[in-house]
Amino acid sequence: MSVTAFLGFSTLAWSQGSLTFEKSKLEIRTLKGENSFEVELAVTERQHSQGLMYRRSMAANAGMLFDYGSMRHIRMWMKNTYLPLDMIFIDSKGKIINIVERTIPHSLSVISSRGRVRAVLELNSGTASRLGINEGDTVIHSIFR
């Protein structure tokens, strides 16, 4: 299977309330190796606003990729989010710019990118540390050039 096919959009979807999130494969390349995830894609403003709010669990190899379509400063919070998360901020080429680990559920504190990014990947809390994911590592997905 080619990387392009492996990392392309799938027809699977997950519905939360009235919102539907397409699912897709994503890889993170680190010094320790490659890690594969099945992520939901948040691409619309409504999907960005909903995100992972109200979810009580998420599979270990799952996550949500927020695609903002262009480079910008991103500010997020954990309001109505029950899961502690790692937030990975990614530029348009797939390079990890910064990581905020172990966010606090329901917190209204602002979590920001350290500069302009294209996307944010949310994974279960502790995943970045457990897999050795660091700033400068590469995220492979069809949204990145």
Description:
By secondary structure, the chain is mostly beta strands. The protein has one domain (3-140): Jelly Rolls. Helices cover 10% and strands 46% of the residues. The chain contains 3 helices and 10 strands, in the order αβββαββββββαβ. It has helices at residues 3-6, 45-50, 127-131, and strands at 9-16, 19-30, 33-42, 62-72, 75-76, 85-90, 96-100, 111-112, 117-124, 138-140. Strands 1, 2, 3, 4, 6, 7, 9 and 10 form an 8-stranded mixed beta sheet that branches. Strands 5-8 form a two-stranded antiparallel sheet. Strand 2 and strand 3 form a beta hairpin. The protein is globular, with a radius of gyration of 14 Å. The chain starts with a helix and ends in a 5-residue tail after the last strand. Residues 1-16 have low confidence and may be disordered.
